[in-house]
Write a structure and sequence with these properties.
Number of domains: 1
Number of strands: 0
Distance between the termini: 55 Å
Radius of gyration: 16 Å
């Protein structure tokens, strides 16, 4: 009658959240928390938004989550991986980005050497973090160099 009981339409990212099984969300959240714990100290810096849109951060986070998906044994067909990578980005960057568009734009950079090197760095640092309790030194260094510039 007044629209009180209308079903609210979910955003595309929330639709992805709802489509994935709980195990994927839980494990991607664990991986995201490692980045978030380091990144929070940079969110109030003057160049934070510009920094997170850089080729380095795009490549790093994509590679990081792609490796997390594989290492956690989550479903990893191409489409399943992309959905999980989007969720990882949505958790890490929250309202600072449109996670779906951000990941699409990142995929379009895959032939860029700077992006490709950062992708490899994200993959390596996730593996190192899992294997050796290693912290994300290159990611932290990039934020330090760029957020206050």
């Amino acid at each position: 009658m007044f629209g009180f009981f209308k079903k609210k339409k979910l955003s595309p990212v929330n639709q992805i959240f709802m489509s994935l099984e709980k195990e994927s969300i839980d494990k991607i959240s664990i991986a995201a928390k490692v980045i978030m714990s380091m990144q929070m100290s940079f969110q109030r810096q003057p160049n934070y938004i510009r920094t997170i849109h850089s080729k380095f951060i795009r490549g790093y986070t994509f590679g990081y989550f792609e490796t997390a998906i594989t290492r956690f044994g989550l479903p990893n067909s191409q489409d399943e991986t992309i959905l999980r990578v989007i969720i990882g980005h949505a958790i890490v960057f929250g309202p600072d980005i449109d996670a779906i568009q951000f990941v699409k734009d990142s995929i379009n950079l895959q032939d860029d050497p700077e992006y490709a090197a950062a992708l490899q760095t994200g993959m390596e640092e996730f593996s190192d973090a899992m294997d050796k309790s290693y912290s994300l030194h290159k990611l932290r260094g990039f934020y330090l160099d760029n957020c206050n510039a």
